[in-house]
Amino acid sequence: MTTAVPVVTVDGPSGAGKGTVSRLLAGRLGWHLLDSGALYRLVALAGRGSGLDPDDRAGHTLIARTLQCQFGAGPDGSELILLNSLDVTAEVRTEESGAGASRVAAWAEVRETLLDRQRAYARSPGLVADGRDMGTVVFPTAPLKIFLVATASERARRRYNQLKGKDSGVSLAALSREIAARDRQDASRAVSPLVPAEDAVIVDSTSLSAAEVVELVWRLGRQRELWGAGRA
Q1: Are 141 and 20 in contact (CB under 8 A)?
Q2: pLDDT (tens digit per residue) in 192-214
Q3: How far is the CA of 63 from the CAs of 41, 86, 203, 223, in angstroms?
Q4: Radius of gyration over alpha carbons of the chain, in Å?
Q5: Which of 57, 120, 200, 226 gets the most CB atoms within 10 Å of its CB?
Q6: What are the two backbone dihedrals, phi and then psi, of residue 123, each rounded to the nearest 5 degrees?
Q7: Pick the residue with more confidence: 95 or 165?
Q8: Domain boundaries, given as residue ranges, for the chain
Q9: Residues 213, 158: contact at Cβ < 8 Å?
Q10: Which 3-state string (H, E, C) describes the chain?
C-alpha cells in the first residue's frame, strides 16, 4: 500500500502521548490528522448506544461500515468529535469507551471495515496518523514511523491528572490496573497486535514533555526531507 502524500505514523500504547503529540505536529505542519483510536471508540460507543451486546461482532461491524462521524475543533480550538451530528467528545474519551475500543479493535471484521476509511485520510499536503497499527498495517510504507512509549506508572499518572478534575471517584490504582489489562489485550490480540514496525523509531516519552517529543519528531522529519528547514 502506497500513498501519494507524506505520512507520519505515531503508534503506541494508551497514555504514551500519541494524541497530543500528533495534534501538535499536524497543527505545526498544517497537515491532516487521523485519530484512529477515536474511530474504534466511536464504534464501541455507538454499539452501546444502540443496545448491542458487547460481544456482537456482526452488529459492531455494521456500525463500523455505516459510522457517521466528524473530527474538528470547537469555538475555543478544543477537540470536537461528532457522532451523527451530536457532540460526543467527552463520552469518547472515557475509560469505558477506551476499554470498548480495545475490545472491538481485536475483531478482524471491524478492523478490515475501518481500513479503507483510515487510508482515505491520506490527503495533500500530508497526514499525521495516530493509532496502534498505523505503521504496521494501515500505512506500512510511511516514510516516518514513530512508536511512542512510556512506563505504565507514568501513563496511569497522566490519565489520572486528566480525569481527577472531571471524576472525583477516579483512582490511580484502578487506572494502573486498567492500563495494564489493556496493554495485555492489545499486545496479544491475533489481529494487528500492538507492536512497533520494524523500521519505527521508538521514542520513550516518560521523562519528556509533548513539546519535546514533537521537536524530536520534527528533527527526524527534516532529516528525511519530509519538510524543509523553512518551516517554523
Answers
A1: no
A2: 778 899 999 999 999 999 999 99
A3: 12, 16, 34, 41
A4: 17
A5: 200
A6: -125, 155
A7: 95
A8: 7-221
A9: no
A10: CCCCCCEEEEECCCCCCHHHHHHHHHHHHCCEEEEHHHHHHHHHHHHHHCCCCCCCHHHHHHHHHHCCEEEEECCCCCEEEEECCEECHHHHCCHHHHHHHHHHCCCHHHHHHHHHHHHCCCCCCCEEEEECCHHHHHCCCCCEEEEEECCHHHHHHHHHHHHCCCCCCCCHHHHHHHHHHHHHHHHHCCCCCCCCCCCCEEEECCCCCHHHHHHHHHHHHHHCCCCCCCCC
CA distances (Å), origin 145, targets 16, 29, 101, 149, 202:
15, 16, 23, 13, 9
Quote the distance between the C-alpha of residue 229 and its chain's center.
28
Q: What is the largest CA-CA distance in the chain?
A: 53
pLDDT at res. 158: 85
State in words which class domain 7-221 has. alpha beta
Contact yes or no for 87/72 (Cβ under 8 A) = no
Q: Whole-prediction pTM value?
A: 0.82
